[in-house]
């Protein structure tokens, strides 16, 4: 038997963007615990904007568990927040995603690393050289030193946890980075994304560095941060067809505002029509078009309108649960 440190992690009730919270439960197991071995737990919802003080108990329901190689016998337990009567809490966006094993998502998370209120590697005052050589850049001048250390450490922690990273890269603005996560099942990639975000915050703590998730920390000629959502369903991959695709794009256009509503805070600052975005009040799709709301990969057209699509509108602070749920709802409306 060993005593495991189970970090129960959940999303709080802050608006417009939830924060990740976590607390540790110590429990003995013979081996790394499976999901069905993990008990329900609780927390004080009055301290997380999820309950009133007089009736403060919220319930944590484990939904996924990942090894945490940064702690001896550690695990991160992703949880849904439930009401004491067993219903999902209103802040529980995961509970609104329809179950669909055939739905696949790939999220591309962009973010800035910040120290003392400035992106890593920026001068104390003013700005670094204009954008151009930072994206996928190499060398101290392009990426500094501390940033890559954190990014690499985070990658290893995620791989140790079994999180399905597909890649990482330095992004267009100095101090801005990206990682991509892919998962099969309607909730899988979003679970992994929240846990990867948790690990990034934790990893940066000890360097005195914070993660800036906001989609547009700087106005002017500096890229914002997105979280492109690549998606496909069983029908998109195996049936597809031009007619189905056009019907789907019509539904996306019809539901434009409902999508934007869950695609992240302050997205009007980022979706300007510049910096590889479409403007927030226009819906468009285009083949290989990075200025469109939805980019259609060449492979999709070449395969008879089959495969995955990229919704470029979600931003870095968006909730992948709410985003996945909304996309699947619209796809389902097509029939
Ligand atoms: P880019 O930066 O050019 O948009 P990336 O390589 O960063 O491309 O991201 C492409 C994303 O598409 C990856 O996250 C990948 O997991 C995802 N993806 C690939 N195939 C599928 C699929 N069939 N269904 C859903 N997502 C997919
Ligand atoms: Mn990318
Ligand atoms: Mn990118
Ligand atoms: Mn992309």
Provide a descriptive summary of the structure in words.
The protein is an alpha+beta fold. The chain folds into 2 domains: 2-92, Glutamine synthetase, N-terminal domain (Ubiquitin-like (UB roll), Roll); 104-334, 2-Layer Sandwich (Creatine Kinase, Chain A, domain 2). It is built from 9 helices and 14 strands. The strands form 2 sheets. Strands 6, 7, 8, 9, 10, 11, 12, 13 and 14 form a 9-stranded mixed sheet that branches. The mean pLDDT is 97. Bound molecules: adenosine-5'-diphosphate and manganese (II) ion (MN) (3 copies). One manganese (II) ion is lined by residues 108, 228, 310.
Which features would summarize this protein structure in a list?
335 residues, alpha+beta, Creatine Kinase, Chain A, domain 2, 9-stranded mixed sheet, 9 helices, 14 strands, binds manganese (II) ion
* Bound ligand species: adenosine-5'-diphosphate, manganese (II) ion
- CATH class membership of the largest domain: Alpha Beta
Number of strands: 14
Output the radius of gyration: 20 Å
Q: Characterize the overall form.
A: globular
Q: Structural class from helices and strands? A: alpha+beta
Low-confidence runs of at least 5 consecutive residues: none
> Structurally, how many domains make up the residues?
2
Q: Topology, pairings included?
A:
Layout: E1 2-11, E2 20-29, E3 41-44, E4 57-68, E5 74-82, E6 104-115, E7 118-119, H1 140-143, H2 146-160, E8 165-170, E9 176-184, H3 188-205, E10 210-212, E11 227-232, H4 234-238, H5 242-254, H6 256-261, H7 267-270, E12 285-287, E13 294-296, H8 298-302, E14 309-311, H9 320-334
Parallel strand pairs: 1-5, 12-13
Antiparallel strand pairs: 1-2, 3-4, 4-5, 6-7, 6-9, 6-10, 6-11, 8-9, 11-14, 13-14
Helix pairs in contact: 2-3, 5-9
The protein binds adenosine-5'-diphosphate and manganese (II) ion (MN) (3 copies).
């Amino acid at each position: 038997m060993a005593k495991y440190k189970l970090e129960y992690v959940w999303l709080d009730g802050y608006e417009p963007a939830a924060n990740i919270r976590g607390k540790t439960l110590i429990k003995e197991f013979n081996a790394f615990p499976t999901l069905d071995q993990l008990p329900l737990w609780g927390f004080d919802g009055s301290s997380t904007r999820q309950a009133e003080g007089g009736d403060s108990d919220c319930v944590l329901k484990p939904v996924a568990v990942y090894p945490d190689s940064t702690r001896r016998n550690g695990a991160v337990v992703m949880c849904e927040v439930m009401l004491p009567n067993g219903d999902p809490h209103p802040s529980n966006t995961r509970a609104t995603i329809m179950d669909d094993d055939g739905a696949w998502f790939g999220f591309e998370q962009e973010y800035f690393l910040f120290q003392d209120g400035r992106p890593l590697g920026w001068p104390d005052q003013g700005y670094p050289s204009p954008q151009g050589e930072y994206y996928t850049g190499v060398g101290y001048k392009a990426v500094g030193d501390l940033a890559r250390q954190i990014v690499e450490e985070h990658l290893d922690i995620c791989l140790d946890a079994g999180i399905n990273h597909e890649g990482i890269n330095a992004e267009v603005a100095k101090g801005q980075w990206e990682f991509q996560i892919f998962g099969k099942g309607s909730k899988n990639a979003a679970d992994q994304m929240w846990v990867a975000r948790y690990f990034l915050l934790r990893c940066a703590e000890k360097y005195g560095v914070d993660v800036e998730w906001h989609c547009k920390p700087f106005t002017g000629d500096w890229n914002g941060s997105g979280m492109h959502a690549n998606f496909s369903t069983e029908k998109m991959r195996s049936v597809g067809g031009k007619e189905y695709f056009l019907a789907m794009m019509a539904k996306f256009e019809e539901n434009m505002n409902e999508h934007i509503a869950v695609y992240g805070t302050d997205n009007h600052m980022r979706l300007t029509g510049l910096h590889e975005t479409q403007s927030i009040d226009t819906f468009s799709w285009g083949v290989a078009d990075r200025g469109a709301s939805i980019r259609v990969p060449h492979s999709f057209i070449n395969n008879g309108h089959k495969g995955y699509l990229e919704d470029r509108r979600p931003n870095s602070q968006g909730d992948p649960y709410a985003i996945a749920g909304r996309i699947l709802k619209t796809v389902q409306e097509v029939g």
